[in-house]
Structure formats: C-alpha cells, structure tokens
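Input record (Table S2, row 215):
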Amino acid sequence: MKFILLGAPGAGKGTQAQFLTKQFNIPQISTGDMLRAAIKAGTELGKQAKAAIDAGQLVTDEIIIGMVKERIAQEDCANGFLLDGFPRTVPQADAVAEAGVEIDAVIEIDVPDEEIVKRMSGRRCHMPSGRTYHTVYNPPKEEDKDDETGEDLIQREDDKPEVVKDRLDVYHEQTAPLISYYTDVAAKNPALKYIKVDGTQPIDAVESAIIESLK
Ligand code: AP5
Ligand code: ZN
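Output record (BIS(adenosine)-5'-pentaphosphate complex):
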C-alpha cells in the first residue's frame, strides 16, 4: 500500500503514521524527520534546510523531491510506504504523478488552527525514532522512556508559538491546495481513495476512523 498523510503542522500525521506503518508493515517516510536527521548529522543538505525549518518556511521543492525519490527507490519501499509531510506543494504532488507512483489513499487529518496551537506547545519528540508524544494528550509510557537509545524527549525548535503561526500560514498558502488537487484526482481515478478524518477526536478514535475508511 502507498499512502499520503495530509494535514496541517501538528494535525497528528506522525502520531497516526506510527500506527499505520505497523498495521500495514510499511516504512514511514517523513520528510521532516529526514531533514532533522540531516541537520543533526551536519550534512550539506542539513545546512541548507536548517534556516528554512527554523523560520517555519518550506525547504525548496528541488531538494525535497530529490530526497524522496532516493528514499522510495530503496528496497524496503518495494511493498509500499507511507508519506508523512510530503507532498506539501503542488509541484511536489506533480512530481509524484510524473514519477508514475500509484498512490492508493490520501488521508487528510483535519484539525482547526486553534487546536493546533495548543497541541504544539505540549509536543515532545524522541528524535532518533521520530516518536511523538504530548505532555497532556499522549504522555510517554514507562517502556517508551526506557528505549534502546536512552535519549531524552525534547521540544522541537519550530514548536515555539511564533514559528507555529508562520508554519500554519505556509500550510494554508502552499499545502492546503493539495486537498482539492487530490479530491479531483480521486474523482477521476477510482484507484485512489481520498479519506478525510476529523483529527480533533482522541488518538485511538482517529486511528479507528482511518482503518474504517480504508476498508
Ligand atoms: P514536519 O516535521 O513534517 O512538520 P509538520 O508537517 O509541520 O508536522 P508536525 O510534525 O509538526 O505535526 P504532525 O502532523 O506530525 O503531528 P504529531 O503527530 O507530531 O516538517 C517540519 C519542517 O520541515 C517544515 O516546516 C518544513 O520546513 C520542512 N519540510 C518537511 N517536509 C517538507 C516538504 N515536503 N517540503 C518542504 N519542506 C518540508 O502531533 C502533534 C502533537 O499533537 C503531538 O504532541 C501529539 O502527541 C498530539 N496529538 C496527535 N494526535 C492527537 C489527537 N488526536 N488528540 C490530541 N493530541 C494529539
Ligand atoms: Zn510530524
């Protein structure tokens, strides 16, 4: 299966990805996680991406498209994958289509901006694995804290309230047009399912809604 998870920053893409990748036994391809790993490793790509990410802006399409193409050509993607945070612009979506990648479902997680701001302030991340928690809505369990790396949970730089506002603006300008882009594709092509779920429900209710819609 090949899935795209679409939604505003903090809508719960990473949270639902953890569960969907287990359920379908496919890798999660989070462009945000890949960029953060590149920044941490101090690569050329990381250096180029850092300024954009810290400012809540997008990294260029060229860099992102190249990075994803390379990733999906790897062996573990042969049976499918879940794209989290990609595509995020119309040119990125066009690149998916032009590469002949046949997506089975686009899953939109819908959450209003007011709720997003609350979520971001409480988010904590485990950087090596990409696992995401929330101080109130999804606190880490004992077994999560004591994992193989022992690395602490941290707050992301771009979760500061002023950056969150910019990220939401960028989402509405550049990513939200993908909602009509993919509903149009789905209307013409029955092989692609467009699923919209209410992301304000509790985490397990969002999971169930996705699974139910995929049946
Ligand atoms: P990226 O890492 O993709 O960030 P994002 O899209 O802004 O999304 P987030 O990771 O912030 O949120 P999420 O939807 O995964 O929510 P989560 O599950 O963590 O990208 C970061 C940056 O990289 C971008 O700003 C850009 O600069 C660059 N970039 C990445 N991809 C790019 C691309 N394709 N093109 C160009 N640039 C790119 O949940 C959030 C919080 O809410 C958590 O604390 C969680 O526990 C909690 N939560 C989740 N679900 C629920 C629920 N149902 N109820 C209550 N709480 C919940
Ligand atoms: Zn994420």
